[in-house]
Amino acid sequence: MRLLSNFSKLGLSLFGFGLLCGGLVGMGMFMDMRGGDWLWIAMFASFVVFLVGYLMPTIIAAKAGHPSLVVIVLINIFTGWFLIGWFVAMFWAVQSVGAKRCPSCKEIVRKDATVCKHCQQPIDCE
Q1: Cα dihedral value 7, 8, 14, 15, nearest 10
Q2: Are 123 and 109 members of one domain?
């Protein structure tokens, strides 16, 4: 969670999109070449980079403890390849960066909040 709080929402989105594009470019470069075993290793590494970029909204939502994690995962996996689905999932996932759950009512509040806006209970600072 600490890593996520150091990035801005736009930074996380651009990082994930960069991984997505970098993996695609890497796979495209290596598909055209002929070679030995190193070629398969390079293609595998490019595929892993692409996969991490493709699943970045899911990774961010899971690390942040997003309350709509299941929906984000489904949107990311089933509509992410349209690219608009990927951006929708990424936008939704980064909405929880900088947020935490209230220990009393379990609603999402800002990370720097000292009182829950939903139940008006004090929130312990971490």
Answers
A1: 10
A2: yes
